[in-house]
Amino acid sequence: MADIYADATRFPDSKYFSPATRKLIKARDEAHSRFVDFESDNYGVLRDDYRRVAEAADERAAREAIKDGRDPLAGEPQVDRVDRLRPRVLGAARELVTEVKRADVAAVRAVKGEAVNVLAAAEAESTAAGERYIAAWNAMQAAREEYGRALNLRTWALAWTIPGVSPDFAGQVDMPHTAFGRRAQDIDGRDVWGAAEVAKIEESFAQAAEPLPDPMVEVRRTDGSPVGRMKASHAAHFISRDEAELVHPEEMPDYLMRSAT
């Protein structure tokens, strides 16, 4: 856009600077706002393809005038208008850029002189924030371990509600895990933390609470009784006591097969 730009140096919050420096930064910002407003108001004249756009606008206006029965040559053409205004608009824009640069140089010089003071304030803030971070991290880790222990008990209790399943209690497990004993992970296999971890784990327990299949299976009793059919959960109980065996192992659900062997 006619190579007219008004870049301004970005600074942190003005609260870190002296009143005099804040005043210079404010003056620079106001100068920049004046340029931005002028640029926005006169974009049609400042843009590099201003003449092509004006010619297209004039052509559209002439066509509309013919359709409406008006004089297509009445009024000032857009091309004439932008040609007439462009030198003054360019001059004004360039002077506004000069004002921004001048104000920016003054602000930069003042900020540079106070950088040591800002550094001292930043060191104090970062030290205090670091201490809060450590405390929050330790609290989070403690809460996560407490969550893991509660999940361990929940997993054991859930397993005991399943017919034919009665595993030993695993002891104190601090790492949170899903109802299926796995880490909570996202769709790409990455471990998740915080609310996402809890959501994944709760979702797994909701899935685990759904009724499990307990089909009829064919078993052969080891005491010589005739082959018969019974629920898989009952069969798993007898198989675990070596009192029966499956005639067709593929009939036994996986979750009961593990407890039966």
Keywords for this structure?
8 helices; mainly alpha; elongated; 3 domains; 261 residues
Topology of this structure?
Blueprint: H1 19-41, H2 43-46, H3 50-68, H4 78-113, H5 115-160, H6 194-208, E1 216-221, E2 228-231, H7 232-240, E3 244-246, H8 254-260
Antiparallel strand pairs: 1-2, 1-3
Q: What is the helix fraction of residues, given as a range?
A: 55-70%
Shape: elongated
- What is the N-to-C order of secondary-structure elements (H for helix, E for strand)? HHHHHHEEHEH
Identify the strand order in the major beta sheet: 2-1-3
Distance between the termini: 79 Å
So how many helices? 8
- Report on the biggest sheet: 3 strands, antiparallel
- Report the structural category: mainly alpha
Number of strands: 3
Multimer state: single chain
Q: Provide the β-strand percentage band.
A: under 5%
What is the domain tally? 3
The low-confidence runs, each spanning 5 or more residues with pLDDT under 50, are none
Short description:
The chain is mostly helical. The protein is built from eight helices and three strands, in the order ααααααββαβα.
Description:
The protein is mainly alpha-helical. It contains 8 helices and 3 strands, in the order ααααααββαβα. The chain has 3 domains: 100 residues; 81 residues, no CATH class; 45 residues, no CATH class. Strands 2-1-3 form a 3-stranded antiparallel sheet, with helices on one face. A hairpin with a 6-residue loop joins strand 1 and strand 2. Helix 1 runs antiparallel to helix 4, helix 3 runs antiparallel to helix 4 and helix 7 runs parallel beside helix 8. The longest helix has 46 residues. The model has no long low-confidence stretch (mean pLDDT 89).
